[in-house]
Specification:
This protein is α+β, with helices and mostly antiparallel strands. Helices cover 43% and strands 18% of the residues. Strands 3-2-1-4-7 form a five-stranded mixed beta sheet, with helices on both faces.
Length: 511
């Protein structure tokens, strides 16, 4: 607590003139007793109210000191339990306050300034810059920062995650911007670089090793919890947070990266080079660039590749979105190859679909040709199912459809019309009407309908009332009407002769 001159004068006056104790001064002036002690100590006065009686903790001090010497990071709460079990009767808060002054302080570590040769080393790290919302999807906004250790030239690129694909893309973009590669690249122990580490034994990520072999640089992770070993990139990220990021306005990720590129090539290149402040970063990079490793002839493939199982619908799921594929490739396992702007779907080595990449979620990205082809197939399937049902019910309908096709008529509408007549009149009547229409050389549903109506009127029957059934399973059934003429054979001549019946009745009466 800061003590102004007026309050300091009051403390000294009450102590010297009124003979107030520290506790009294503290309560009356509403000042902490440590502040009162400090004012009196600065005036050269001892703590007169300090009692000569031993404190409760005094006889435990040797045990506390020895324990903290052996275990410097032991918590005060655990130490309090140990002392309390040995008879200490004070409270934990007062004990914690007293132990704070007894804990040994670690000796400050001195660091040696490391210097590197031009073209020898670069350092890489990620920086988290909040989140970005695209449609209904929220992504982490991650900054890929790579800095050359000698010239301190910074490369900055923003991505929507820190996964392996963007990890490699950031390197490739930086190497292209510098037109060269440093011989050694330092990393923190991130999962994209180090899969496992036991002491000095390091298991690198195999993709990073393959990438480093392609560009011929050495990946080198720093020691665990030793961020100072890559202090240049740590300071570069802080530099980006302080100088580039504040009050920055941007519309989308492409706009942000365009601004980052302009910024990296702008005034940060004209600041003094920390290795030699007599020259700028731009001048130091001009000295360093010829000493960088040359780029390989071909870039490393950085597209994301995942295997996807296609279900019964013609869509491939990738990053919470569905991309359409030809309907002929359902129920298979395909490969999705994705660049930052494009998603390709492959069946083996054959590319069967290409779409623009979406960073939204729950979207269906469709190629109209895929949907149109599926619609045509489904329409043809429905027509073929109807034709099969019609031909099964009335076999002569095959000839009618054949003649209609030769004439260039629409088979779909003809099939639908005949199916409605089938539902209204039954298979037997429909077959008779179709046969008559073929004999008259009029293969059209209207001729069949007129024949059916004429036959109904000749029998003096009422108009047929079609019963429509909504169940699709019932609509697919074909019921051929049985010919009832066979039942006429069961009747005897006596059943059809009225006189015979009357005679039989007389015989019964005589009996």
């Amino acid at each position: 607590m800061a003590i102004d001159k007026e309050l300091e004068a009051k403390i000294l006056r009450y102590h010297h003139v009124e003979k107030w104790k520290v506790g009294t001064i503290s309560r009356q002036l509403r000042v902490h007793h440590d502040a009162v002690d400090r004012v009196l100590s600065q005036a050269g006065l001892p703590k007169v109210e300090r009692s000569d009686r031993p404190a409760m903790i005094d006889r435990y001090l040797p045990f506390i000191t020895e324990t903290l010497k052996q275990y410097p990071t032991l918590t005060a709460s655990r130490l309090y339990e140990m002392v309390h079990q040995r008879g200490y009767g004070g409270g934990p808060d007062h004990f914690r306050h007293q132990v704070a002054g007894l804990r040994p302080r670690p000796q400050s570590e001195a660091f040696q300034r490391l210097k590197t040769l031009p073209g020898e080393q670069c350092q890489m790290d990620w920086g988290h810059f909040g989140h970005i919302t695209i449609g209904k999807a929220q992504h982490k906004l991650m900054a890929f920062v790579l800095v050359l250790s000698y010239s301190r030239r910074i490369f900055l690129r923003f991505y929507l995650n820190a996964r392996m694909a963007n990890f490699l893309r950031g390197h490739e973009a930086a190497f292209t911007a510098w037109n060269g590669v440093a011989r050694v690249c330092l990393y923190d122990n991130l999962k994209s670089a180090v899969l496992e580490r036991q002491g000095e034994a390091i298991r690198f990520h195999p993709t990073l090793l393959e990438f480093a072999g392609h560009y011929r640089f050495e990946p080198r992770p720093v020691a665990v919890a030793r961020g100072n070993e890559k202090g240049r990139v740590e300071r570069a990220i802080r530099f980006v947070r302080d100088r580039f990021w504040p009050a920055r306005k941007w519309t989308d990720l492409d706009d942000l990266n365009a601004q980052a590129q302009v910024w990296c090539d702008g005034w940060p290149m004209d600041r003094p080079c920390p290795e030699d402040r007599s020259i700028s970063v731009r001048q130091a990079f001009a000295q360093e660039q010829p000493l960088l490793l040359a780029l390989p002839d071909n870039p490393y493939p950085t597209d994301e590749r995942v295997e996807v199982a296609i279900g019964k619908t013609p869509y491939a799921r990738f990053e919470r979105n569905d991309y359409s594929i030809p309907h002929t490739h359902v129920r298979r396992t395909l490969t999705v190859s994705a660049s930052p702007t494009e998603v390709r779907i492959l069946d083996g080595a054959q590319v069967i679909a290409t779409h623009p990449r979406s960073y939204d979620k729950a979207q269906q990205i469709e190629d109209p040709r895929h949907i149109e082809a599926l619609t045509v197939v489904k329409r043809q399937a429905r027509r073929h199912r109807g034709q099969d049902r019609l031909i099964q019910a009335a076999p002569c309908a095959r000839e009618l459809l054949t003649q209609a096709a030769v004439r260039g008529d629409n088979l779909g509408s003809i099939t639908a019309a005949l199916l409605r007549l089938l539902d209204d009149y039954g298979s037997q009547e429909l077959e008779v009407a179709i046969t008559e229409s073929l004999r008259r050389e009029v293969p059209h549903p209207n001729a069949v309908r007129l024949t059916l109506e004429r036959r109904r009127e000749e029998r003096d029957q009422p108009p047929r009332i079609g019963i429509r059934i909504d169940d699709k399973r019932a609509q697919k059934l074909v019921v051929r009407t049985h010919d009832l003429h066979s039942y006429d054979q069961l009747q005897t001549p006596q059943d059809n002769d009225p006189e015979a019946t009357e005679e039989g009745d007389d015989d019964d009466t005589q009996n």
